[in-house]
Amino acid sequence: MTADSAPLPIAAGVRARLAQVHPIVPWLLVLLALLPLPLVLPNAYTQYVVNVMAINVILAVGLNIVKGFAGQVTVGHIALMAIGAYASAVLSTKLGLPFWAAMPAAMLVAAAAGAMVGIPSLRLEGAYLALATLGLAESVRIFISGTEWLGAAIGFEGIPPPYLGPWALDSHYAYYYVAMPLALLGLYFSFSILRSDIGRAFKSIREDALAAAASGVNVPKYKVIAFVISALYAGCAGSLQAHMAPGFLHPNNYTITEMITLLLMVVFGGIGHIWGGVIGAILVTIIDDLTRDYYEYRMMMFGAVIVLVVIFMPRGLGGIIDDFLVRRRFNVLRGARQTPRTDVHAA
Amino acid sequence: MAIDMKRTFLGLAAAGALALGTGAPPAHAQDGVIRIGVTLRMVVENGLKYGQMAKEELEAVNAAGGINGKKIEVILLDDECKPDKGIANVNRFIHQNKVHLVMGSTCSSVSLPMVDVTAKEEVPQIVPHSTNTNVTKKGSAWVFRTSVSERFYAAVHAKYLAENAGKKVAYLYTNDGAAIGFANDYMAYMKRTYSAEPVYQAQMQETDLDFRAHLLKIKSVGADVLAIGGQLDAIARISQQALEVGIPSKVRRVAASAASNAPVPELAGDAVVGLIYAAAFNCKDERPVAQAFVKMVQEKYKVRCPDHDFSQAYETAQIVKQALTAAKLGLTDATLKADRLAIRDALANVKNFTGLASGPINFCADPTPQCRDGNRTGILVEYTKGGKDFDTKVLARVSFEPDFGL
Amino acid sequence: MLLEVRNLTKSFGGFVAVANVDLDIREGEVRGIIGPNGSGKSTLFNLISGVYKPDAGARVTFDGTDITGHESHAIARRGIARTFQMLRIFQGMSVIENMLVGHHAMIRYGTAAAVIGARKVWHEERRVRAEMLEMLAFIGLADYADMPAGELSGGQRRLLALGRAMAAKPKLLMLDEPGAGLSPTNVDVLMEAVRALQQRFGLTVIIIEHILKLVMETCGTVSVLEHGEKIAEGTPAQIKDDHRVIEAYLGKEMRDDQVRAYLRSA
User: Fold this and answer.
1) Which of A319, A325, B26, B295 has its CA 20 to 30 A from that of A220?
2) Ramachandran bin of C177, using left for φ above 0, alpha for ψ from -120 to 50, beta for the remaining angles
């Protein structure tokens, strides 16, 4: 986490020149680099997996904001995705909105729900907050599965794909150019937020809410902001899921199992590590795909991964990367200055 | 900002490498092999056995030299009754494994979106278990169903019970697709045929454990029939609790087709005695073809009384083999599209297939339920004994016209 | 008066932690608050800084505004910064991020601008970062700016806690036992830093302290609490001779001359 603002030991001249570049520039370069990806993928199924990956990245990066950075234990995130998905589905099928209008609207609906999920966080902490958010999440799923006009337990069918003029983006290849840029945009926003005062306010709440308040951080306000921002991500991911071919939604896709998988992404990548959500989402999507060949042992394998990660790398892959970078920076520092300047030490 | 760039590119490189990694396994399709993708719900007790049996039955032809000299390769995946898993599986079958035919799935909520995918990609799909009426109603020319549609099941028990028990029906069902379909179809039939409204009606959660409050109310309204919709554990629980709250045995109890699954009598014990359900097959079926099948399942899969999910998985495999024998297949990359079409047409040509199903199975070319709901015969079964060594008897057998219930 | 406290009372259940305390702090003053353990010193800080809500009848006025019962963050924004006995630095954040959180109230851009990474955010961030680095240099932690705060030594943490409070550019700085756990030499270093900060920024400071020497040497006026009540107030010299203070601090068994000798040696 602290490594994000770390100076690398590179030539000062280069650094000075790079510092003149707007932070969005690297992301535009990444976008350019990722544009030809479909050309090198072996088949449309791989493309489909990559699209799912992009959706999971959005979801996990969003969860990382509220959980990793603001430190709020929520297990209701998957329900926010469901709300975004169903909102987008309803807006596009019943009101005839195009994807490009339905998605932002669905994000707003999810954000409103996110604010409501966030309200218990003002009074509850830790396991109690987890239980409260779990209750909210389950009631969303139960509401959907009992509501006829949402397709109930049969499923919501016939959600249209995004259109670009006359062209339907209903192939996996075309959909990549919707999902991937949105994932990158989400990542860019997440970096912007976490490097800013808002991100620091989130982290200070996670570290010590009392001290944060004493520093002038409006703790309840920022908790709700964190929930709302992460809900915007969940809404976006949900909408992308809804409009991806074949345009079908079902409450079974938003159960505890999915929530655990989502948590695994964040834990695996490293809670609170800015790349954690990305690494976790990509790896978990791959593990999820590969283990389907071993359906007899799939759940066991998933469980084993969780247990091993929690025991052997509690801070996830991101934590390992951080340790590496911090240690290196330490050594650079130590090399540059043999003795620390200050002479104040604890008694 | 320097760090942004460097790390961003590191991340990008990693992401790219991983993304490519997923696609890497030898997806290259081998020429001269018929590839079939099977996706079923295999998380429940017998689910794994349904899948294994389908795979083994299809691949059994390989030992005898294959079909017209061509080997069959089955790719079997579990969809856990989750639509997103089913969609992922069918995409993998079609694009990565380049299958000629898809078989699946168990849950209607999984089969429904799969139908959209196979229709768009023009790959034949044969549905072995799902009962939701819409599976064949979407107008896909690529879908076939060997299971009995809900539109038939509803009438099987509705007619029998209206004539033999009464028209005052209390409905208690969970919120899964099959259960809702069961209750709605029954209600619709009663209303249409006898103008009978439900005397009681409640929808519960799949995860609910206690149904007693509802059952007590049902007891007091004096229903003739208690209709139970749900997956197997819900059916077992409701049966047991109906006995506990003292609903008299003259109130006939009827359940959705999941009641045919062996865990129901095992879980509910003697509470299932008198419970009736519509099914496609019963292990007490005395026809030689049925008894040979039951014996095979007993020996090979260690299941004493195979339910209709066994028989339908088996039957679907046999129908597929018959159609494949009739189809002219090139089995190269270039002929993939033509081969899929040939298999579809061969399936549409299956007429009067007589096997485990209680009546003949017929398909035809039109993309309509009349043509694609192949199995139109249901039987009505009653439990006569519960527990591990449960017993059943067949009350009635009803065949329908192709356009019944549409 | 910069801070006026009237009739401040707080009871937890039946236990009265602070009882009817009045306090007047002049602008630019360095005030010491002493008292034995459990005399209500920290509670007093928590009441002024908004961690606890005072009982009815109290009135706290800061810089001409009534802040009684306001939220902690709102009080901080008015210009009251504080440190904690247990420091409560943000251990998982870097040293400079700790400072920047302290500076939170002074940062001028909104959430939306932060999300889209607007240019003004970028400029503002650079400006405040430079400013905070300067401040870190003042307390001697500039070299550690990017180090996780959790990896600092105990003394460095204490300095950082002080720095974080200073980063808010407060009018009033409240230090809760700043010298706890420090060796005598380090107490001197710390007090030097406090004095330097006070002179440079024209601060008003309230110090709660156990180490009498620290208070006696640094503060112009000292208030004494016992059982939640203010029992004495005056210059260090007056306090040293106050009979009640001596009783409160050391028990009645000691003779006055013994106590005086102890206080002088402290």
Assistant:
1) A319
2) left
Contacts of B264 (CB under 8 A, 6+ apart): B232, B235, B236, B239, B255, B258, B272
**Chain A, 97-136: which have a CB under 8 Å from a chain C CB?**
none
Question: Over the Cα atoms of chain B, what is R_g?
Answer: 23
Q: Say whether residue C90 is in contact with chain A using an 8 A CB cutoff.
A: yes
- B10, part of any domain: no
Burial class of residue B258 in the structure, from the number of CB atoms within 10 Å of its CB (0-12 exposed, 13-18 middle, 19+ buried) = buried
The secondary structure element, H or E, covering residue C222 is strand C221-226
Strands C59-62 and C3-12: antiparallel
DSSP B22-84: HH-S--PPPTTEEEEEEEE--SSTTHHHHHHHHHHHHHHHHHTT-BTTBEEEEEEEE-TT-HH
Q: What is the ipTM of this complex?
A: 0.90
If one counts the domains in chain B, the total is 2
Residue A11 lies in a domain: no
Residue from A346, A155, A166, A304 nearest A241 by CA: A155
Give the residue among C107, C169, C88, C82 at the shortest CA–CA distance from A195: C107
Q: How far is A204 from chain C (nearest CA, A)?
A: 6
Contact C105 A215 (CB under 8 A): yes
Shared domain check, B168 and B94:
no
- Which range marks the domain in which residue A192 is found? 23-29+43-254
Other C-beta atoms closer than 10 Å to the C-beta of C66 total 11
Residue of C84, C91, C141 lying closest to A207 (CB–CB): C91
- CA B136 to chain A, closest CA, distance in angstroms equals 14
pLDDT digits (tens, 9 = 90+) for B119-128: 999 999 999 9
Q: How far A280 CA sits from the closest chain C CA (Å)?
A: 21
Helices (H), chain C: 41-48, 72-78, 95-102, 111-116, 119-138, 154-167, 184-201, 212-218, 236-241, 243-250, 256-265
Report the DSSP beta bridge partners of residue B279.
Answer: B379
> Which residue on chain A is closest to B38 by alpha carbon?
A293
| Segments forming the whole domain that contains residue C144 | 89-169
Binary contact (B175, A286; C-beta < 8 A): no
* Secondary structure of residue B132 in the 3-state scheme: coil
Tell me which residue of B239, B309, B228 sits closest to B269, measured CA to CA. B239
Residue C101 lies in a domain: yes
Q: Are residues B292 and B159 in the same domain?
A: no
From the list C114, C122, C168, which residue is nearest A216 (CB)? C168
Over residues C202-259, the pLDDT tens digits come to: 889 999 987 777 788 888 899 999 899 999 999 988 887 787 887 776 555 555 566 5
B289 Cβ under 8 Å from any chain A Cβ: no
Closest partner CB to C186 (pick from A193, A203, A347): A347
pLDDT of A6 above 50: no
Interchain CB distance below 8 Å, B120 and A282: no
Number of C-alpha atoms within 13 angstroms, CB side, residue C246? 20
Tell whether A200 lies on the interface with C, counting CB pairs under 8 A: yes
Question: CA of A322, closest CA in chain B: separation in Å?
Answer: 12
B137-183: pLDDT as tens digits: 999 999 999 999 988 988 889 989 999 999 999 999 988 777 888 89
Q: Report the CATH number at residue B42.
A: 3.40.50.2300
Q: 162-181 in B: which are within 8 Å (CB) of A?
A: 175-177, 179-181
Interface contact flag, A8 B8, Cβ < 8 Å:
no
| B:200-219 residues touching chain A, CB 8 A cutoff | 203, 205-206
What is the DSSP pairing of strand C221-226 with strand C30-34?
A: parallel
Neighbour order of strands in the sheet with B275-279? B200-204, B169-174, B225-229, B252-255, B275-279, B377-385, B391-399
* pTM exceeds 0.95: no
